[in-house]
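User: Before I run my own analysis I want an independent prediction to cross-check against. Here's the chain; please return only the structure tokens and, at the end, one sentence I can use as a sanity check.
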Amino acid sequence: MPLYQFKREQKVKSTLPELWDFISSPRNLKEITPDHMGFDITSGDLPEKMYPGMIIIYTVRPLLGIGMTWVTEITHVEHERYFVDEQRVGPCSIWHHQHHLEPIEGGVLMRDIVSYQPPMGFLGAIANSVVIRAKLQEIFDYRVDAVEKRFGKFEK
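Assistant: Structure tokens:
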């Protein structure tokens, strides 16, 4: 079964501490997720900041409005540098999402690397080429807009 990677970079008009505070708070996930995804955190009272070993449970409707439970674990956190979330229960056989931050002139470079494997072998590979890859692109396009709305457009 093939393993795929999706990469996205965004330059953000922000200081490193401000952007870190925003993206490292699980409470802000909904703000950067398209409304039509039906994203709702169901794991109850979440702390303000993530930590290694933290489990986040949510419902999401990625395709055809069909709801599913998605459980991720925050496996690595290095303050103001990066964190990693990995799927424990959800639609993929493998989901490993790295979030990296790097200060640059005029702001912060935010880099995402999603390594994933759809379920169902050959059928999952077809689904990736037809639907999944485009859905990831759409979600990250939305996130670019949401981050720009919150922090302003990077001008450099």
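Sanity check: The chain has one domain: 4-151.
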